[in-house]
Amino acid sequence: MRVEAAARGRLTAVRRNSGWCAVGAAAAGSLVGLTVAPPESMQGDAARLLYVHVPSAWTAYLAFAVVLVASVGHLRTGKLKWHRYAGVAAEIGVAMTALTIALGSVWGRAVWGVWWAWDPRLVATALLLVVYVAYLAVRHLDDDPRRNAHRAAWVGIAGFVMVPVVHFSVVWWRSLHQPATMLSPRLDPPIDPVMAVALVLCTVAFTAAAVWLFLSRVSVLRHADVRGPERVPVGDRA
Amino acid sequence: MTGWVAVVTGLVLTAVTFAALYFRLVRQPGKRIDPR
After folding, report:
1. Mutate to test the interface with B, among A32, A43, A45 (most CBs of B within 10 A)
2. CA A139 to CA A154: how far, in whole Å?
3. How many angstroms away from the CA of B15 is the closest CA of chain A?
4. Cβ of A182: how many Cβ atoms within 10 Å?
5. Chain B CB contacts of A107 below 8 Å
6. A159-201 per-position pLDDT tens digit
7. Global confidence as pTM
8. What residue of A is the nearest CA neighbor of B29?
9. Rounded to whole angstroms, how far apart are CA atoms A168 and A192?
10. Nearest beta carbon to residue B25 from set A34, A213, A231
11. What are the distances in angstroms from CA A73 to CA A37, A94, A157?
């Protein structure tokens, strides 16, 4: 019990620190990205959408990686807590993927002149969204929570295949979308150093905010369990 | 759409998404559960 209490204390500390880290990095990233960083040479100020579009995509990848790990954890141990972790991460990932598509659409309208193009990166990202919305639906297919958890775990593992497909779609197929800048194989990313600082700060802010949301939700579900099943938020009973 | 209109639209979309996640995952209206 003492070990468990210590672990919970550490998680609470991580949650609080990640919250403050998100606030600080968001403030610094906004300041640098909106005022200090120069406009892009071809796209002008519209390219400042980079500082939210890329971090939201990165956070979605990260959330789906957590779904993968938690799904494997559930299949290995059979414990429903892994199923819950996967569900929380999937909700964050779906929201971040939808945000990535919406931000990309606004950016596309500003620089390409269209809200949507049938481009490999855009279509792959839309498919990624559909896969994880389906994952969330599979979690509630049956009345038996253990069967739901088992099925969902397999979908969570198989669905992760879409993440590398989305990321490398700009390399594998001819795409209107620009290739990766920061996660490219090149050792010297082709980006202005100030723009790189703003991008890193915003990526830290998004990641820390996602960690805070994840740990807060896990804490909420744990409290709900302690107080009784009637208080478990609808849709999260596992 | 000018550059700054796109940027402001993007910031609003981001804020709305995080607010929706907060109210969906952490502080649901009508629920008394608090993560603290």
Report:
1. A45
2. 11
3. 10
4. 15
5. 6, 10
6. 999 999 999 988 888 878 877 776 666 666 678 889 999 999 9
7. 0.88
8. A233
9. 23
10. A213
11. 42, 21, 11
Cα B6 from Cα A149, distance rounded (Å): 41
Query: B21–A95: do the CB atoms touch at under 8 Å?
Result: yes
How far is CA A35 from each of CA A29, A49, A160, A198, A212, rounded to the nearest angstrom? 10, 13, 37, 10, 27
B29 interface with A at CB cutoff 8 Å = no
CB-CB contact of B17 with A215 (8 Å):
no
A40 by DSSP, 3-state: which? Answer: strand
Within 1-20 of B, beta carbons closer than 8 Å to A belong to 1-7, 9-11, 13-14, 17-18, 20
The per-residue b/e assignment along A68-92, b for 16 or more CB within 10 angstroms, e otherwise, is bbbbbbbbeeeeebbbbbbbbbbbb
ipTM for the assembly? 0.87
The Cα–Cα gap between B25 and A197 comes to 30
Q: Cα(A156)–Cα(A65) distance, rounded to whole angstroms? A: 9
